[in-house]
TrEMBL record:
UniProtKB keywords: DNA-binding, Transcription, Transcription regulation
Family annotation (InterPro entries): Cupin_2, Homeodomain-like_sf, HTH_AraC, RmlC-like_jellyroll, RmlC_Cupin_sf
Organism from which the protein derives: Clostridium puniceum
Gene (name only): melR_3
Protein name: Melibiose operon regulatory protein
Residues of the HTH araC/xylS-type domain: 185-283
Classification via Pfam families: Cupin_2 (PF07883), HTH_18 (PF12833)
SUPFAM superfamilies given in the database record: Homeodomain-like (SSF46689), RmlC-like cupins (SSF51182)
GO molecular function: DNA-binding transcription factor activity; sequence-specific DNA binding
Length: 294
């Protein structure tokens, strides 16, 4: 998933997106993706980890979720995630438009909900966790009447969030946040469209009518990452998908995804996975053969 304003395609029967099980961080069905780079969307996102370990970055703040931890990501908060140890749980996305209908002042509140930071207040999170497990089970079983029960649980979840986890948001904070997101959207969309080219900071700055110095500081402040690291993360993510889903050569993958050569791609890859791309691909194929053998 690119670092961008994400447009989520919600389910037809009920307006939510629900991911569950060990594929918690899968990206559009790819069974090897365990990193989702920085992005934002106009949805409430609830991350509940049953077992394993997942790292989340929300507005540049890092959180580690493990057994029975839950965290809510607010609408338009910039976030990313990395599956560290077979993260297993539920990820529920609820669209802004749906919430706005039934809770019109959603723009003036935000949710403070992170069980990892309130270890001594587990009772506060008990109902919410149970409802998330229930909606996961009911929706995925798909039995007669599942849509009715799913809607009922969805409203219960929203009521619990508004009643026990919301805080008022100053008007100035909302306005400033909207202005920043509009500017970020313009910057990110341009970089996303040109990530495979030789794209310098000066070129991006010129496109969005900012000085390179200002853009560099602005990017670091609001994204929590430097421009070059962000650009490399975009290139790396698309290169990774080709590595695990095609038989293209490492050099071809590197160059086609904006890296100057295979050496540059190898360096970043090894820093993340402790092996080079060739070894990683070989290990995946070996594991796949073992899993399909009788």
């Amino acid at each position: 998933m690119d670092f961008k304003h994400e447009i989520i395609q919600f389910n037809d029967d009920i307006p939510i997106k629900l991911y569950n099980g060990k594929n918690l961080l899968d990206d559009k069905g790819s069974k090897h993706i365990n990193m989702i780079s920085k992005h934002w969307h106009s949805s409430i996102e609830i991350f509940y980890v049953f077992t394993g370990r997942v790292n989340l970055w929300v507005n540049s703040q890092k959180y580690e979720l493990c057994n029975d931890n839950l965290l809510v990501i607010n609408i338009n908060e910039i976030h990313s995630s990395k599956n560290l140890e077979n993260g297993n749980g539920v990820l529920l996305q609820i669209p802004y438009e749906f919430v706005k209908i039934y809770h019109p002042n959603i723009d003036s509140i935000s949710f403070i909900c992170n069980s990892n930071l309130e270890a001594n207040n587990s009772e506060k999170y008990f109902k919410l966790k149970k409802m998330l497990k229930d909606i996961d089970n009911i929706y995925n079983e798909g039995k007669d009447g599942y849509v009715l029960k799913s809607y009922s649980l969805l409203f219960d979840i929203l009521f619990e969030l508004v009643t026990n986890f919301s805080r008022s948001k100053p008007d100035k904070e909302s306005i400033k946040s909207k202005k920043n997101l509009n500017r970020l959207t313009e910057i990110i969309e341009y970089i996303k469209e040109n990530k495979k080219a030789d794209l310098s900071l000066d070129m991006v700055a010129k496109k969005v009518n900012l000085t390179p110095q200002y853009l560099s500081k602005y990017f670091q402040k609001y994204m929590g990452i430097s421009y070059i690291k962000y650009l490399n993360s975009l290139r790396f993510e698309s290169a990774y998908k080709e590595l695990v889903n095609t038989d293209l050569s490492i050099t071809h993958i590197a160059i086609e995804n904006g890296f100057p050569d295979a050496k540059a791609f190898n360096k970043i890859f090894k820093k993340i996975y402790d092996v080079n791309p060739r070894e990683y691909r070989k290990n995946l194929k070996t594991k796949k053969l073992k899993n399909t053998s009788f």
